[in-house]
Every structure is written in structure tokens, then in C-alpha cells.
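Would you mind giving me a polypeptide sequence along with per-residue C-alpha cells?
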Amino acid sequence: MVINISPDAEELGNVAGAGAAKLVREAIAENGSANIILATGTSQFQTLNQLVSEPGINWSKVVMFHLDEYIGLSITHSASFRKYLQERFISKVPDLKAAYLINGETDPNKECERLGQLISKHPVDVALVGVGENGHLAFNDPPADFETEQPYLVVELDEPCRKQQLGEGWFKSIEEVPHQAISMSVKQIMKSKHIICSVPDERKATAVKNTLEQKVSNLYPASILQCHPDCALYLDKASASQLSADTINKFKV
């Protein structure tokens, strides 16, 4: 794992998005296509904005998978991650080869099976992910399941996770925030050849510290990224503010 620290969230997104684009271009050049995973949430705004504006990507050769989605939430709801990706990514790259979105409005177990079969046929080249305030990776809240071989699974959202969604303005009250979601599993994320992890904002500083300075543990789900052979963690000064000098020196590019 390496870390890249930018002065602010906008620059973080620009650098992370450019880094992701470089990897997508390389995958297309090497394989004739690229399979990618996209995360959502406020942490991904600028990264995705930069990615879709990058030149030289033949999107007709790119297949996109979706990281997680609430169960029972309409695609028209402002918090829907399908809606988010339609508006912020898919509509901006209309010649995309394929986009496999998670449908949280159908039988969740059958949906997990459908997506699992699809992603098993598409080895992932580049995964764009984030880290939650509670240290989650996708919606794998602590204690996360590090062992399941299922590519997608139904998960319970803990209280800190639900409060984060409320705090980011996606819902009007905590009662509106769903209790369950479909999430890509930790093992499936870790199968990605390259991982780009964008984590801006001071409210993520403790989670970032735990990700890098704790021993790998399912109590700190994102700490598993320490084990990935090619993971780049993009931070801004605020999210990196609790890191020790030794940690920065150890992981910084």
C-alpha cells in the first residue's frame, strides 16, 4: 500500500481520478478491455468527476460493477446509489460496454447470486473504493466478514454507518436510513488487480489512522487493504491529520 496526500479534497479527487484513468487505459491496452468497480458517496464526487473527464479512455471496452446498494430503497430516492452512478458516471460515458448495478428492490439473495455469477466472469482490473467513518470497506461494517467467498452478500448496517449517511445529507432522518444493504464482499474487493481508495475529510481521520496503524483486523475492515499488493490510498491533509510521521514515511509515495 502507498498513500498520496493532497492539500484538499478537490486535488485529492483530481489525482485519484487521473490515477484510476491511467490504470484503465493500461488494462485496455493489455487485455482489450477493462473491468472496474465504482464506489459512491460524497468521498467519490471529485474522483469520478475527474475519471469521466480524462482523455484517451475507450469506454466501449469498459465494464462497470457497483460496490453496494441499500435494500428496499427506490432508484428515484436521492440516496440511491444506482441513481448516483446513473447521474455521475453512466450518463457521462454513454458508450460504456456494460454497467452491472445492484437492484436493492428485488429479492436480495437472488440479486447477490446474479451479481456473483457476473463478476466471476469479469476479473476486476481497477476498484475505486472509499473508507467509512466506522472504517467499513463497501458496506462491510465492523466486525466485517473477511472469510466469505460470496462475491456479494446481504449485510446489516450498524448505527455509526447509518448516522454517516444521515450526516452526509442523503436522508432527512435516521429513521429513513435502511438497516440492510447488498455489499460486495471484502474478499471480492481484494481480488481486484489495482485498488484506488479515495478518503477525503477530517471526519474520516480516525478511520484512516486505524486503516494504516492498526493490525489487520475485521474490527477495522479497511485495514485489510494493507495486505493488497497494489493499493493506493488518496488522502487530503484533513483525513491524514491523525497519522504519525512514521506512518506517513512508511507509506507515502
Observations:
- The CA atoms of residues 146 and 187 lie 6 Å apart.
